[in-house]
Each structure stands twice: as structure tokens, then as C-alpha cells.
Amino acid sequence: MQVQMPQHIAHTATDRPAPDALIDLAHVYMLSGLLTGSTRLIDLAIQTGGSPSVAADCHRAINDAKACDAAIGSAAIAHGEFAVPSIERNADGSPKFIVPIPAEAAGQAEVQAAVVAELTGGGIDAELRSFLSAMLEPGDAFIDCDPGFGFAALTAATRHPGATSMVARSADDGHATFLRRAFVVNRVARGLVEAPIGQTPQSLDALMTTASAFQPSRVIIHAGQAEDVAAMWPEVERHLRNPRVAAIVWSPDAQQSMELQQHFERIGVTQFVIAHDANGAILVPAGQLRGASIVIGIPAHVLAGRQAA
Known about the structure:
The chain is α/β, with parallel strands linked by helices. It has 13 helices and 10 strands. The protein has helices at residues 18-31, 35-47, 52-74, 109-120, 126-135, 151-159, 173-185, 204-208, 211-214, 226-231, 233-240, 257-266, 300-308, and strands at residues 81-85, 98-102, 141-144, 165-169, 191-194, 219-225, 245-251, 270-277, 280-285, 295-298. Strands 5-4-3-6-7-10-8-9 form an 8-stranded mixed sheet, sandwiched between helices. α5 runs parallel beside α6 (151-159). The mean pLDDT is 89.
């Protein structure tokens, strides 16, 4: 649970009810790392008539922070690394996984942006990870052609620990080392990182023929950016006709997206995006919502099976 500074706390010049003020001050203490002091303020808020539900949320945030911090402290982080805890949490508040980052990479703009997004925002590749959490079932395989820092692959690995397979394609040898390190730290038993051959990243054909992807009955593919999908379209089209492929996920852009949409429609792959309602995340046809970070292609054989069920 993420804690944000109450907007009015630094600007108010008027007296307020003590319970409300105590809760706001508890948030300030939390953001300052004073978790014991924050707990005391919450208890005082309850004693003076504060909302039990608001107090319970604050207590939960404190317990999550303690569990998360403890998990970082006990993780197998090497000298010269720091840990980024996942936004997904276990029931006790500890992170589902952590991503080890070399200290010398901390100055890179993309690393700083990733850390901030994961700790204070909605998380890296939030829509993709939300889809994987809802879609993946035990026994599935997830192929990631564009894994980045590995957050999506690790989300897949920890959705059903030990029961799903991951195949990630690295951009170069250093990237492969980084991803393998993340799999080792998180004890991912069924994770495979395919390094480039020479200077060329592995093809989708090659990823699909690995034992990790060939044996499962269902495969979900993250194909990457629209330009990546366009570049490997013959492979994409071939594998989307494979009854084991349940979905393909890609990120739209201004240049390639329209043409890709037409390619997908031609072979009977329906495109969806993620929307949100009172019940949470739902899939809606791609044309009904603009600005989505990912598009999810569902092959006709999958939709036919669901309609029959």
C-alpha cells in the first residue's frame, strides 16, 4: 500500500478536529520512515474518535512497509546491488519479488524512472502485469520478447510459483546477465533467458521451440513494441494460428498500429484493451478506448472456446 502526503497538511492555517489531524500527521511520520511514531499517532486518533476504517488502512500501510523492508533486508542481494520491491504484495505485505539493480546503473535515467514508477506510481508495465495476473493459469508459459527490467516476467513467475514457465529474450549479453540474476534472486525455477546469437536477438520461432514454451498447453506472448511485431510478422502470424497460443500483447504507436490492426483482423485475432469499472479491470474492444499502453490480441480459437463454454 502506497502512502501519499495529505495535500492540505503543508498548507492548512486553520484548526482541525484532533482525530483528522492525528491521521494526517501519521502519514507524515510514515513518509519520514518513523513507523513506530506513526503507529502511536494512529492509536491516538482512534482513542479520540477517529474513523476505525481509516486507521485500519494506515496500520495496514505500516505493516506492509515493515514487511517489505524486512524482505529487502533478507534478500540475496550482492554487494554493489540495491533492491526494488514489486508493487504486487503477498498477504503479509512483503513484495511478490524484488529486482536487483547494480549500483553503477543507478544514474541511468531509465533506471531512476523505473524505481520511481514502481515505488510511488502504478508500477512498471502496469497494464501488462495486470493482464498476466488475471490471465495466467498453472501450467501456462509466458514468452517475453521485450522484457526490459523483467518486471512482467517476474510477475508471471510469482503468479503461480513453480507452476508457470517463463522465456525472456534479452537484447544483449549484459541484459541476459541482468535478467538471469533477477531470476536467481527470486528463485524462479522455470525461467529461461535466451541471449542473442551474435548481435541478433533470438527469433520468436526459436523462443517457441524451447522446452519451457513447447511443453505447456497454453502460451501467452508479449511481442513488444508495434515496430517489433511488424518486423517479425510472418512468425507472429504463424504462431497465432497455433491452438496453444492464448493471447499476444503489444504496445501501439502512431506509425505501425493501424496496419497491424488490419493484419490481426485479417487472421481473425480480435484486439482488446484494458478498461476499469467498479469491479476492476476488464477487456473492451480496442476501438472503444484511446490511450491504452498495450493491446491484447485474442485468437479466434480462444474466443470460440469461451463462447462454447
